[in-house]
Amino acid sequence: MSPKKLKINFHKKFNLPSSDQILHALNTPASYESLQADLDFRYDKKSKNFQIKTLSLNLFLKKIRPNDTCCLIGFTEYDLYVEDSDLFVAGLCNGNLGVGAFSIMRYHPKLNFSEENWFEYKQSKICDDKTWLMRSCRLMVHETCHLLGLAHCKYKDCCMNGSGHLKEDFKQSMFLCPIDLKKLWLILGFNLPERYENLKQFFVKNKCEKESKLLQKILKDLENFE
């Protein structure tokens, strides 16, 4: 089926920043409840599933991106595609526009997807929201770093490693290697111990014991180094 236009309520499905600057620029009320966009999509009548064409979403994000930001990311549970031949895409960065749109739909452990048809998938009884969260966080770090100018890492086990399929993606590290960490520091100029402490608190809060212990060790090493 050829793409048509789909009206999406972004307040419900997209984590867009609550920015007075955006709302003022769009002359909208102080809420995203009325913020909508016409997006290209494809639809399967039998399954009643659909995918959003990512470029149309990125063009919308460009319109609402505040002038004082380096990038804007759309984060959704809707499935995405770029070309008609695609089974799916996890997302798409448009670095020249300073925007990216990404889907976490195929990162949930309870969903089993067809390798032939984009519209076919089944749900299992698995309930593992922590795995979904970790996979989604890794995706967002990876793609945000792309928007900031980092390429795929070829040197070490790193969150910026490239992947050819989801199984490979799921095995990647949660963390940047020293090389890409240095690149990110040169771009953003953050406080390294403070960054690791914030990361540790995030993993502790979400009961990720392995990551929490690793970050605690890194923080101790930084104290000894100082």
Automatic annotation (TrEMBL):
Q: Which SUPFAM superfamilies match?
A: Metalloproteases ('zincins'), catalytic domain (SSF55486)
CDD domains tied to this protein: Peptidase_M54 (cd11375)
Pfam families referenced in this protein's UniProt entry, alphabetically: Peptidase_M54 (PF07998)
MF (Gene Ontology): metal ion binding; metallopeptidase activity
The protein's required cofactor(s) are namely: Zn(2+)
List GO BP terms, alphabetically: proteolysis
Q: Which domain of life is it from?
A: Eukaryota
What the entry lists under Gene3D superfamilies is as follows: Collagenase (Catalytic Domain) (3.40.390.10)
The record's keywords, sorted A to Z, are: Hydrolase, Metal-binding, Metalloprotease, Protease, Zinc
Q: What is this protein called?
A: Archaemetzincin-2
Q: What is the lineage of its organism?
A: Eukaryota, Metazoa, Spiralia, Gnathifera, Rotifera
